[in-house]
Amino acid sequence: MVKAIRIETHGEPEVMKLIDVELPAPTANEVLVRHTAIGINFSDINVRRGGFYYPEPMKMPLTPGNEAAGVVESVGSAVTEFKPGDRVGYVGMHGPFYHFTGAYAEKRIVPATRLVHLPDNVSDRQAAASMLKGMTAASIIEHMYPPKKGDVILIHAAASGVSLLLVQWVKYLGASVIGTAGSPAKAAVAKAHGCDHVILYRETDFVAEVKKIVPEGVSAVYDGVGKDTFKKSMDCVRPFGSLVNYGNASGHVPPIDLLDCASKGSLSVSRPAVSFQIAKTDDLRRNCAHFFDLVGRGVVKVEISKTYPLVDAVQAHRDVEAGKATGSMLLIP
Ligand SMILES: NC(=O)c1ccc[n+]([C@@H]2O[C@H](COP(=O)([O-])OP(=O)(O)OC[C@H]3O[C@@H](n4cnc5c(N)ncnc54)[C@H](OP(=O)(O)O)[C@@H]3O)[C@@H](O)[C@H]2O)c1
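^ thats the input. predicted complex w/ NAP below
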């Protein structure tokens, strides 16, 4: 028996209960992983609340969570790349994140094709706090708008999980960063991680503030906030610039008229989904190796602002929904 968070129905954080579940032995191509750290991601909130993703109903009961690090306990008969005692991590299973959750547990059976080895210079906690967010940052930086020297990038909610990695990665690539933040404390975190300017976007008009810094507009906007920021962000981008919406922390982005992209200067608009960045095992492992190299060399620092015992998942979700997080937060089994 292992302890796992279960939900029987969508709802408020209190629908999550810690229960005992039975785990079968791994089949031929599976691995039993004992979790040492579990990543908390906004997608966990969306899965728990329900109604965010496509209208396919989620199979209940379910255990939330897409990301964890830990130690291999046993392997199936056909597994050759992993052995008991190996340090491993995973992010997402095969397919969409809302269908194959299950990380909020002491242990989990994982297909070997979804596991990566953790390098010695990346701790379990760093890995669990950064793989999903780091792969999201990679999908934006590599596929949506790769920042170049001389670019200015506007990154919303710059002290939040994905954004704080983006800030550091963009700076490393030689571009400048304007961040937005919801409080002076978050602004300080964003600055400490490399933001050249931070705008308190709940108190000031961020479009006017951006225009004061770069009158011609920014090269690109990376927006994980969505509903509250997306349309105004269209006015922050220079001609032929790019607006990347990667998240909806404040709610769904309203529909846009494509002609607005023309009138606002031949703007490109995109919406990445991280699961495509890591759908194939080779891509997953190559992307993780590249990201872990940045983390291991200290180019990208993984800020873990808070850890919670697994039993306190309810409180962790309340804190994420209240926007209290900076960087990443973990559940510890
Ligand atoms: N496209 C993908 O594949 C992908 C992958 C990973 C994450 N995401 C999405 O990206 C978004 C950010 O993820 P994350 O892990 O960086 O989240 P996070 O660390 O929890 O940060 C979210 C931040 O958004 C801001 N915010 C604005 N309005 C909010 C509201 N109504 N409720 C809560 N927060 C609000 C807050 O910052 P301030 O206080 O500074 O405003 C908050 O700290 C989420 O929507 C997530 O689902 C998408």
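The CA atoms of residues 111 and 284 lie 13 Å apart.
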